[in-house]
Specification:
Layout: H1 18-31, H2 35-117, H3 134-139, H4 153-156, H5 176-219, H6 224-232, H7 234-270, H8 280-288, H9 291-341, H10 344-429, H11 464-478
Keywords: Autophagy, Cytoplasm, Membrane
Membrane topology: Peripheral membrane protein
Main location: cytoplasm
Amino acid sequence: MATSSSSGPRSPEPEPTVDDLTNWFLAAKRSLSSMTLCQQANVLVDTAKAAIQEASVISARCVFLRNSLQDQLNIARQVSKMVQMRQDQLRGEFQKILAELDSADSRLNATLAVLRDSIVDPAFSGDEPSDLSRSQRDALPNGADHDPDYPSSSATSRSASPKRPRDRTLHDFVDDAAIEDLKSRLRGSIDSVQESHDDLASIHSHFTTSLSGLATALSHLPSASTFQSKLATHTPTLNLLEEKTEHMGTLLESLTNHFDRCQSALRELESHLPLSAPDILIVLRRDSNMVDDVVQELHDHFATVDSTVQKTQDSHVELTNFVALAEDLVHQFDEFTISHLLMLPPTLVEFETQQMALATEMQARLDELIQLAEFYDGFVGAYDALVVEVARRMGVQHRMEKVAAEAIRRLETMEKDDHEERESFRRQWGVWLPVDIWPGLGDPLAGWDVRKREGGGQLPKLRKEVIERAVMKGSTTAGR
């Protein structure tokens, strides 16, 4: 409020009466009730200071907990990524083995199809081959159907019979049970691999779902920069509150001084004593007109203090809630660590061990499948080689028979010639030679027998086109 000094011209005002002074005194006394506003403001400021100090501690704890939780979340994500990468890697290896299995199985099935279509010549069973069709006879080389080394269609013809057994094929010699057993074991291994992948995928899915929930909950916590920005407002807030309360104290002091002056002036007037300050009434008149404005200003400052402190308390409550949320998240992370995070690495190790064992098992069975395909591939070639071998033996037998026939013919010729020579000798010289000069003179020529030894079985009578086809296939295979 103003002091007693004044400057500039003033319009004359009526002299204040005792009633006026009494009214000023009562108004000044009422204004002193604003003292409670100042007291309340000081209490609020003290409360705000305590809340701000505690907020600093809470903010630091929130930042620490959030950073700690973020680190745990990052570790869990790395573990999840590691598990996913390892599973994808092992799945890729599994798919590679599956591709090799499909290739080997296709090769084996193709070979088995060839075996089903490869009829074993009836000659190998002791049966005579069936009649040649006209197209087959036309396809024979010139004179082949009259070659004595090969059976003719007329020699091999037989009457058709509805009860004739079906032709055997090379597939009749295949161990289908062994193949099916191998494929069944492979299917079992594949199912085991798929089940283990599904089990790990289910466990990992629960892991990622829980982790996603924790990440979402953690995102509701403000970042460290947010906490720092909140803390940065504390100092200006305290400065504002202190400034407001200091100003309120100054205003209250001016009201108190005004009250004291009103009280002194009133006593002097009531005692009919001269005023100690002649112009005091002018000052009191002017100040009394400002009392309501000062009181209103006090209320305005108090409202500012109250709203500012309320914001501080709201921020404190918010921080307290954040701490509670962070501590609850810590508890959730602990449960997640025990039930998921700590269990996932051992589960992955167990999965890897199982996958390696199954991969080894599948590789062994893949090798078996490949060996079966190679074996039956060889069987096809071996049958063709058998046909060629029979043809070779037939040729050898034919040549031996020709040599034997030639030897018999020559021996018979030599025996005949010898007989004629002996008769000629006997007629020419026999009359002069005594019988007892050589006891063996009349002995017959020692003869020779050329005959086939026992054993050796009968060779299959294969048709010429069968042999030529086998020779051609063997030449094609050798040229690859």
